[in-house]
């Protein structure tokens, strides 16, 4: 009798192992399949395309070795959101693999130096909250605490805004609001008291106050409090042009911070007001195609082009804002129009079903060496790439908000 029971136990254990292996192989086959099914939603089709090109997440953008990077962090955040939507562990493991490749067992972050005070370095930390919640691996908590420590001592303008980087003193860029504030807000909500929410709101107040153009309602890319930079307006300190992706960063920062800003906080309504104001302005510049131009207000001026990443970010912010009730439901229609245009005009599809996103501005900034003057000519002449990481994460996030 005992022998028969032992045999049954062994068979049951073997069956469990076989089922586990089968499920794992099935997930890997989905990832490595030569054909990406057109029956899947756009979010999964893009994710599987990314995984096909870059079996390890750190290989995105054809990187030769792992590095802590804000763009890949954005893509991994979209994979975590996709996992929450689909419950497919392949997406969770892909993001987890990136964290494991860039954070050692002691919680030290690869190629990260706190004393650089680069706000971009905060962004990838957003993926660590869910990883720590799921695994309870202390390395992720240590890394979270390190990034939070940076914000404690990060240099600020005299009026209280975070510098974009130590190498860009007294400058606030729209990009920086997305890099730092959603992380700051979630950390505050999960680990601290609510006092820091005043400081988080302060960052938006400063950027709104100093970069808003009353004529268009748009926000200039950056502000130099010192007014010392050659690109800075000597009266206002603002950079000279509107760059769609920078405004997109700002809008994504608003809708994501609102996930954690307490409903009773007195500054919450102010942030929603900012979101409505910039959404109204951006909507005016949506091209008849459904997309937005690289230089937001310049239309089809010579050299300007319909740019992918900024368009995706606007779609995401419109859709999420409407879904959460911050924006009128009419913005859902604008988001759907934009997403349809992205798919029809900017996405190409291989015979294998692999998606490629075209017309992505590779990078843009101000100052530095070689010097970037923020002129119209500068923005339209930055490199345009296919499958650049700036265009990957926002596509998935936009698709998820629209259930596409």
TrEMBL record:
The keyword Hydrolase applies. Residues 1-27 form the signal peptide. InterPro entries: 6-hairpin_glycosidase_sf, 6hp_glycosidase-like_sf, Glyco_hydro_88, PolySaccharide_Degr_Enz. One of its GO terms (molecular function) is hydrolase activity. Transmembrane segments: none annotated. Keywords: Hydrolase, Signal. It holds the Pfam family Glyco_hydro_88. The keyword Cell inner membrane does not apply. It comes from the Bacteria. This is Glycoside hydrolase family 105 protein. It comes from Flavobacterium artemisiae.
